[in-house]
Amino acid sequence: VIHVYAFADGLRALPPVEGLDGAPLEQLSVDGVTTVFSRRDQPTLEPVRERALVHGEVIDALMRQASAVLPVRFGEAVADETALAASVHDRADALRRGFARVRDCVEIGLRVWGANPDIAASTGAEYMQARRALEQDRREIVDGLHRALVALARDARVDERPLQGREQLLAAYLVPRSSVDELQAVVDAFAARHPGLTVVCTGPWAPFSFAEEGAR
Amino acid sequence: VSVAESPRSLAEQVTLLDLVDRVLNKGVVLTGDLTLAVADVDLVYVGLRVLLASVATLEQGAKP
Question: So what's the ipTM on this one?
């Protein structure tokens, strides 16, 4: 079967990395859209984590060789080149719109956690009131950071999965390469001002969260 | 990228979580037919999240 890594636009050359299980990378152009893939015999993808990391490394390497990359979700298989060509043909318009959307941008991930607050209160009701006020303040502070980052980004997605534990915000920002340093500076300054919050930026990633139109 | 369970900084843990999260859950959906078992994905994902939760707790505890 064929394992697809990504669609690429303006691909100068295949990157000098191996695909899954050491298979060579190959490319196929259909309707002006280049698909990067490799072939594999095994029906399963175990162990998942190791192979998922290889998938991610190939996409990361492609980001250095192309002007726009649309990553493909790990774990899908296409029967052969004929089926791949048909699949690309069917979605060529959407893929070209996707290239325009993400061109010259990278994705930056953001996670914010809050520490458990020390709340001094003599009654349960007082405690609950203080806690609600603190949570409200925190939401406004984190919203402020989000808005500042949206202003630097071409697009943004807030992860809609329910927050767990101390998570305050999970988001992704599609940022022009030229604005990445500025965004990092905004995050660093925010983290320094708010020691009660743990803020971690990851990336730059390929635009995984922005690969599908209207994806959330 | 090594995934050995050695002590790492919070940033490294989060980076690994974010990478796996993106590769498994985001990106263009080609066929909708996943060739890997959902249970495998859950295992990878849940393991990382638990790991990360404990790291985040440690970092919080270390702050003044």
Answer: 0.85
Which spans in chain A are helix H? Answer: 48-63, 81-90, 92-102, 124-152, 180-193
CA distance B7 to chain A (A): 17
Residues of B whose CB is below 8 A from A57: 1
Interchain proximity A73–B25, CB inside 8 Å: yes
Radius of gyration of chain B (CA): 14
Of A49, A73, A202, the CB nearest to B29: A73
| Spatial separation of the C-alpha atoms in residues A67 and A99, rounded to whole Å | 8
pLDDT tens column, A114-145: 877 778 888 999 999 998 998 899 999 999 99
Task: Write out pLDDT tens, residues A29-63.
Answer: 999 999 999 998 876 777 777 888 899 999 999 99
